[in-house]
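Reagents: none. Just compute today. Branched-chain amino acid transport system carrier protein.
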Amino acid sequence: MKFIRENLVVGFMLFALFLGAGNIIFPPLLGQQAGEHILIAMAGFLITGVGLPLIGVITVAKSGGDLHELSSKVNPLFGIIFTSVIYLSIGPFFAIPRTAAVSYEIGIKAPFLSKSLAESPLPLFITTLIFFAITLYLAFNPTKIVDRIGKILTPALLLIILALAVKSVLTPLGPIGEAQGGYQTSPFFESFVQGYLTMDVLAALVFGIVIVQALNGRGLTEKAEQIKVIIFSGVVAALGLAFVYVSLAYIGVTSTSVIGFHSDGGVIIAEATKALFGKAGSFILAATIILACLTTAVGLLSANASFFNKLFPRISYQFFLIVFTLLSLGIANFGLESIISYSLPVLLAVYPIAIVLMLLALFANYFQHSSLVYGLPLVVTAAISIYDGIKTMGFEINLYENILSHLPLYEQSIGWLIPAFVATGIAWMIHNVKNKYRNA
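Predicted 3D structure written out:
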């Protein structure tokens, strides 16, 4: 019990770091579109939105919280390039600006601004400026993040979401709606891919260093104890995320008869909240979105500054914090739609690579961290996922597209999955044969 009491706050911190605006927007959208197939759809979404991030936390914990060290076991150059791409993607280029832009769009613009004022760039700039000032303050001393987030922001965030969940169960908006689009024929795979949009697998790979620093600041420096605490924290965070996803998906699946169908999860949760709580709903939604975005931004900013400070030790952690904050502020003011449009190709390219690397690393002791067993599946995965990203940008290679179209699950956007497993099996057999002849 003492272990649980002492480390529950670390679990709350990790949960808060994961829970960004995307995690609140996508479940109600899934609920509306899944309709009567909500149970099987939630199973697919929980695998990529909860299960894989938990595995990511455990994997990074075993490597000491260092994604660079983990990915360098494939190849030193790959380690630097891949880790930098992940950190910048989940940091100042895409994810951090998105947290501020979503805070403005859903937490400020939608409920509080008139149409004429919303068209001005000034409210966005003022909102993002305040948002990043608070973010910078909270991230400036990473050893205090546990106290500031785990003890203050997370309980408030949980209370707001709990209020939405309880109200939606006690007074449901309406009956379960009908399935839409891809959820009519393949709800599991459709929701499995939708789980990518949370970006939580990428976040899991970078949050490890934040947790390790926080534990070091509390005087817990022994690796074995750190791994135990991080795994416990990962389970707490996973349970919290599952509760949020199921609750918000339930709101979505019962909302159709009252608010109609919408393609924007933000609109769904905004309209549903108004229907559940009336005028007070706008304030509840705004507080939820802003708190969720703020806690995620703090964790991502701290993780990025820590990584690049380690990569370039002559440049201080505080300097990177300031630079990444200013860069995020600038990109956030391009607006949410622009951020999503230019981040999607990168996300499609790197997400499958991250998943395969994470799963390989989890079982690396079985193949002695062989570069071959790491490398072949990653090359095969990258050959498919990078093309998916390029195709999203409007560039299509007909011959290559014809070849890939014959892959299992290609139409479900996970054509990389089976080839990655096959490549892993081939590489593992070659590794075993080499070891057998080497030891003969």
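The two ends are 52 Å apart (CA to CA).
Action item: order primers for follow-up constructs.
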